[in-house]
Amino acid sequence: MVRIMVQLTEEQLKVLKTIAKARKTSVARLVRDSVAVYVDASIQNPEREKKRRRALNGLKKIQKAGYHDVEGKTDVAINHDLYLAEIYS
User: Fold this and answer.
1) Is residue 1 part of a domain?
2) Is the domain of 38 the same as that of 57?
3) Could you tell me the residue range of the domain that residue 28 belongs to?
4) What is the dihedral of CA 51, 53, 54, 56, to 10 degrees?
5) Please, are residues 31 and 6 in contact by the beta-carbon 8 Å criterion?
6) Is the pTM of this model over 0.70?
7) How many distinct structural domains can be found in the chain?
């Protein structure tokens, strides 16, 4: 194994320590396992990250556009096809 230095936020480390304690493992093991899952997903579908970012950008556009009903509630669940068509057009 190779030793590296990684910077995390205090909150990230706090949560990782809590998970590690509950699973009776180390934070290092959690990080290695998480990286392994990420690498496997990326190798299996090289376009996955590109698609994920595109989808997240679409959601951000929906949020910024302020789609909501008269009461101010979101209606994305009802009109999602319309909004996706607007995003991808």
Assistant:
1) no
2) no
3) 8-44
4) 120
5) yes
6) no
7) 2
- Tens of pLDDT, residue by residue over 19-43, are 999 999 999 999 999 999 888 877 7
Instruction: Specify whether 34 is located in the same domain as 53.
Output: no
List the structure tokens of 73. Answer: 């509630």
Helix (H) or strand (E) holding 10: helix 10-23
C-beta of residue 75 within 8 angstroms of C-beta of residue 68: yes
Mean pLDDT within 32-55: 83
Do 55 and 37 lie in one domain? The reply is no
- Cα-Cα-Cα-Cα dihedral of 48, 3, 31, 49, to 10°? -10
3-state class of 70 per DSSP?
coil
Q: What are phi and psi of 26, to 5 degrees?
A: -100, 160
Same domain, 60 and 31: no
